[in-house]
Design goal:
30% of the residues lie in helices and 17% in strands. With 248 residues, the chain is α/β, with parallel strands linked by helices. The strands form 2 sheets. It has a 7-stranded parallel β-sheet with strand order 1-10-9-6-2-3-5, covered by helices on one side. A 3-stranded antiparallel β-sheet has the order 4-8-7. The chain starts with a strand and ends in a 14-residue tail after the last strand. 2-amino-2-deoxy-6-O-phosphono-alpha-D-glucopyranose binds next to helix 5.
């Protein structure tokens, strides 16, 4: 695995944007796996800047988002559909039909999840998957205990995850209890993975996932099985790492 430790959030965002831009420049019709949450916001801002100032082209790109809350329509301000539209898609030249985000309102989740997996395969598979990490080591909404081979499905959110995300909702009661998420198996099939983490609140999850055992109790630890996984993290998120061989 490649671990890059930076000083600032801006550096994380820029380093991650360079990885994405490299993927798009070498393959203009690349398939990107995208994440939500506060962490990738700087990456998306940098990609928008690169699109506007440097002509980074999204016209042939296809995207698959990791997850969505069950019960939130695409126009709900806390839905991941809305988040992606506001923070990236509406600012770049991506073709709307090439955007895929799990549905939080389908009446047949089983069929939808199967179709989502199938669409990823039909589009050629994910070339580059962007990930954040939850304080409990979750990736997407694959909470601890998720099967390491899991595919897209509904997951029950832990109380801790609901609490962490409650800051975006009026009250804890409004935070959805379930989400549709790509599985860990889906994520592992991506050709390349880049995980971003910032701040002390992620330090334990980062060390568990990099230096701990591969375990479903820390879903991100599954990335140890991936051949091309890169972590781009700041000093605070790296503060519990013990090896001295990481790149600064
Ligand atoms: C969310 C998302 C994850 C994200 C994580 C961390 O609930 N489902 O994809 O990586 O939690 O979020 P943040 O970046 O806001 O800390």
């Amino acid at each position: 695995m490649e671990i890059l430790i930076t000083d600032t959030y801006e550096e994380i965002s820029k380093a991650a944007a360079r990885v994405v831009a490299k993927a798009l420049n070498s393959k203009p019709d690349a398939v990107l796996g995208l994440a939500t949450g506060s962490t990738p916001l700087g990456l998306y801002r940098e990609l928008i800047r690169m699109h506007k100032d440097e002509g980074l082209d999204f016209s042939q790109v296809t995207t698959f988002n990791l997850d969505e809350y069950v019960g939130l329509r695409g126009d709900h301000p806390q839905s991941y559909h809305y988040f992606m539209h506001e923070n990236l898609f509406k600012h770049v030249n991506i073709a709307r039909p090439n955007i895929y985000i799990p549905s939080g309102t389908t009446d047949n989740y089983e069929a939808f999840c199967k179709w989502y997996e199938q669409r990823i395969v039909e589009c050629g598979g994910i070339d580059l998957q962007v990930l954040g990490i939850g304080g409990n080591g979750h990736i997407g909404f694959n909470e601890p205990g998720s099967s390491l081979g899991s595919l897209t499905r509904i997951k029950t959110l832990t109380k801790g995850t609901r609490k962490a995300n409650a800051r975006f909702f009026k009250s804890m009661r409004d935070v959805p209890k379930y989400a549709v998420t790509m599985g860990i198996g889906t994520i592992l099939k991506a050709r390349k993975v880049v995980l971003l983490a910032t701040g002390e609140s992620k330090a334990q999850a980062v060390v568990d996932s990099l230096e701990g055992p591969v375990s479903s109790m820390c879903p991100a630890s599954a990335l140890q099985l991936h051949r091309f996984a890169t972590y781009v993290i700041d000093q605070a998120a790296a503060s519990k790492l013990t090896l001295d061989t990481y790149e600064h």
